[in-house]
Amino acid sequence: MDTEQTTELQQRIAAIGAKERDDQWALRQEMAKRQQANDRAKLIERHRTQRIAQVKAQLDGLPARIRQAQMAASDADELAAVWSANIDRLANEYTQRLHAERHSGRPARLDIASQEAQAYFFGGQIKKSLRHLALTVNQRSYGQPLIDAESLAEELKTEEKQLRDELSQLQLRG
Questions:
Q1: Which residues, in sequence order, are CB contacts of 72 under 8 Å at separation 6+?
Q2: Confidence check: pLDDT of 78 > 70
Q3: Number of domains in the chain
Q4: In angstroms, rounded to a whole number, what is the distance separating the alpha carbons of residues 64 and 84?
Q5: Which uninterrupted H or E stretch holds 49?
Q6: Are residues 160 and 59 in contact, defined by beta-carbon separation less than 8 angstroms?
Q7: What are the tens digits of pLDDT across the range 106-141?
Q8: How far apart are CA 70 and CA 156, in angstroms?
Q9: CATH no. for residue 104?
């Protein structure tokens, strides 16, 4: 019986040791899961914080973009006005030359191929396209679609609303 008791005692000790090892293993597994969950929560919070900073920076940049578009439109208007005045000057030179020739007794030559004649006869049509041409010429990247300041302002208002909605949602999650 002594051997049986010893064997039984050894089995109990082995069972207790195995249970302790299993408990320790389960505890380590639980700790690892908690650590992963904490790391994931920290990562999510860091991404949320970074996105909040990005959204705030985008919101801060909107007024500057509007001012930039307004300045570009203003520059284009000034350039178109200069070109328009140049067309008017050329047309005026054409009529003055013809007037002077006619009243000096010389024959008045139409010279339709001259810049002045082109400005006189087609100046109205040319002037209609000057603002678009000025916007195209002033644009930093040739070939991009032209957006006037009013359209851009509407687009930026929509973008601002979306960014503010996203910001409020991000702040609510925190």
A1: 135, 138, 139, 149
A2: yes
A3: 1
A4: 30
A5: helix 2-103
A6: yes
A7: 887 888 899 999 999 999 999 999 998 998 888 776
A8: 13
A9: 1.10.287
Q: Are 91 and 120 in contact (CB under 8 A)?
A: yes
> ∠ CA(145), CA(147), CA(153), 5° rounding?
145
Instruction: Measure CA 46 to chain center.
Output: 23
> 105: domain range?
2-173
Nearest to 151 by CA among 69, 67, 75, 60: 69
DSSP assigned state of 142: T
Q: Which two tokens stand for residue 140?
A: 């930093």
Tell me: the pLDDT tens digits for 149-174?
777 778 888 998 998 899 888 888 76
Residue at token pair 């408990």: 23
97 contacts: CB under 8 Å, gap ≥ 6: 116
Higher pLDDT, 67 or 86: 86
In single-letter form, the type of residue at position 5 comes to Q
